[in-house]
Amino acid sequence: MQQTTGQALEVRLSAYIDGELGDAERAELDALLARDEDAKVMLEKLKAGSAFGNKAFEDFLHDPVPLALVRQIKQGPGISPRAERVATANLPAPTIRVWPRVTAAAVALLLLGGAVGFIVGSTQYVAEPEGSASTRPWIDEIAEYHRIYSRQKEHLVEAPASDGPKIETWLASSVGIGFKTPDLASKGLNFEGARLLVVDGKPVGQLVYRDREGDIFAICFLKGSEEPQTDQFREDIRDNLGLVSWQKDGASLVVVGPSSHAGLRDLAETVAASI
Amino acid sequence: MRPAAETKDFRRDLVSLLPKLRRFAMTLTRNANDADDLVQEACERAIARSHLWNGEGRLESWVYAMTRNLWVDEVRKRKVRTGGGAVDIFDQSELRVEAVAEKAVYANQLQKMILSMPEGLASVFLLINVEGHSYRETADILGVPIGTVMSRLSTARLRLAAMLSENTERRA
């Protein structure tokens, strides 16, 4: 307990708010507050400042944390954040590289005319972009979808959780994969509902969850994938998002959430065991 | 030597702490770039010294104190480099607003207001009012006497109340 006798009133009342005073001093201030209007006003001012400051500081927690640092801490020394970033984080999706080629093809069509232009354009469009094997385009697209949809306050999902079993029927028939919506309440996640996405021309089911802090997490799954089938978990980071992906029974699955969330892999393991 | 699983837990706890650690660092540095550098340095040091963490109390208190010490060292170095002498910012009796806080541009108006508070106020307010540390813990983390913690806290609360009032009047 602190002794504040003799100090400025705001200092004493501040300690009073925090319960840092002994019984005698607290009783003294109780009596003062009962009879002195200025003291009451001061107390209210201190409380108002506290409430306002709490709100302001809450906003700081939504800022992204340094991603290279997250990886470095998770994976231990010997990992170079810069090398990691080059190796796995935020590589451009192949579709981005295709556009200049399509544009070039369109110009060629205009200049050279019908058949020749069409052949040039088609050939260039289907050309395999360099390095596409390592970019994991479906993961990139899932991250982009998540980044956009998770900001939707009123239209976070297409089918709300209240639709219950209808969601499973709808997504199973659309995606071609039977599944059970995982109950992640034990992980502090509340099921919000679902969406149907399209990635690389394939339907993707997305189950959306929200934690107590309002952060959005999603489980996405699609039938098959061009990646080699493995039940090993793989972690990727795309800007402020972390993605843990794996394959199971001919389906590709990924859990998406804030990269600063330390339990993303545990969450993926729970999902893998229950979906 | 600390067992592997325990080390893994320490790292995991440290990652979980990052958003809060960065917020604390922001109250010290009052600009995002310095805060990120400081957080990185603090985490590297915490991992290197994780064998010294006894698992008792709050991990954040231990890491915060480390972060604060690193920042005081950094400020000292900067002051020496710029010829201002080695003055511990937390030992200064006069509170002042640094130009860096005024110049910083942050998207969030509330954050901007917080970071414009005179040196030393935001850290005390964060630790006690927002994160629930006791006066004693706060004094230990920041390396200042409890009396300083108390006076800075009440000053911070009154400044925030004034900001709220100005904000309300501006909106009206």
From TrEMBL, chain B:
Belongs to the sigma-70 factor family. ECF subfamily. It comes from the Bacteria. NCBIfam families: sigma70-ECF. InterPro entries: RNA_pol_sigma-70-like (IPR039425), RNA_pol_sigma-70_dom (IPR014284), RNA_pol_sigma70_r2 (IPR007627), RNA_pol_sigma70_r4_t2 (IPR013249), RNA_pol_sigma_r2 (IPR013325), RNA_pol_sigma_r3/r4-like (IPR013324), WH-like_DNA-bd_sf (IPR036388). Keywords: Sigma factor, Transcription, Transcription regulation. Residues 16-79 form the RNA polymerase sigma-70 region domain. Coiled coil: none annotated. This is RNA polymerase sigma factor. Residues 108-160 form the RNA polymerase sigma factor 70 region 4 type domain.
